[in-house]
Amino acid sequence: MQRSCIILIVTAFLLLPIYIFATPILKWLGQEDDIANEAGKFTLQIIPQLFSLAINFPAEKFLQAQRKVKVLAWIAVLALVIHIGMLTLFMYVFDWGTLGAAVSFNLTRWGISIAQAVYIMGWCKEGWTGFSWLAFNEIWAFVRLSLASAVMLCLEIWYMMSILILTGGLSDAVIAVGSLSICMNINGWETMLFVGINAAIRCCNWRWMAGNGCLYKLGLLLHFWTSSWIRSLPCCKFRSHAALQTILLLIILYKTNWNKEVEQATNRVRNWGGQDIKTGNGAEST
């Protein structure tokens, strides 16, 4: 977990130029000034949450590995309630507009990260033994282990974001992007189940399979772009693609030899993680 935090903090610093120069980058990509200026301003405002993710994601995976799923659920529910309250206060009472949304987003993200970290250090005594300089040992091996996951996630996220970028090149781009953004948010709520199953596939190390699915989606962009009905792109298109992918993944999961997967995972972590693996009784695995 500590290695992951270190890697992600460094990555956050590397991503900062994209956040800082978002406005000129979007204009270079052909976005209208109204969209580029507003998006660039909001991107600058949410820079603090970028660094919270460097703690949030590793802590989340740590708690999942410790079977502390209920804790994650309660933190998420509490954060959601507080987030809605802050949005109402900052955006409608104080009339801060997008600044209010950004402040709420930053506070919620950091609140989740801090809550997870406090729980790990205070109540996960068996899994947490304190900060250690050993986190810097074999860190490059751990980076290599992370690269495949990073590529898969980037393809998945870029697929959705690329649609927005392409839509920004249409006439009446502000209306088109706004409509598509609403559509994507609704679709995001509906595909939570599919995302969970997809994640079960960044865990089985079948990233090549998930990557193929992402490339398939990227191919759809050309179809959307060359179709005149992109303005009225329906949510059902996204749902049908996600549902089809989920059905195929469920079939694969059903036919998988999980004992063999455990053995392969153990070997991968030993080879790439730079450390020996311990079995449940504390003995070194073979």
UniProtKB/TrEMBL annotation:
GO cellular component term of the entry, any: membrane
Keywords: Membrane, Transmembrane, Transmembrane helix
Transmembrane segment boundaries: 42-59, 71-93, 141-161, 173-196, 208-226, 238-254
UniProt KW Transmembrane helix keyword: yes
Highest taxon of source: Eukaryota
Gene Ontology molecular functions: antiporter activity; xenobiotic transmembrane transporter activity
Keyword Electron transport: no
Similarity field: Belongs to the multi antimicrobial extrusion (MATE) (TC 2.A.66.1) family.
Protein name as it appears in the record: Protein TRANSPARENT TESTA 12-like
Organism: Pyrus ussuriensis x Pyrus communis
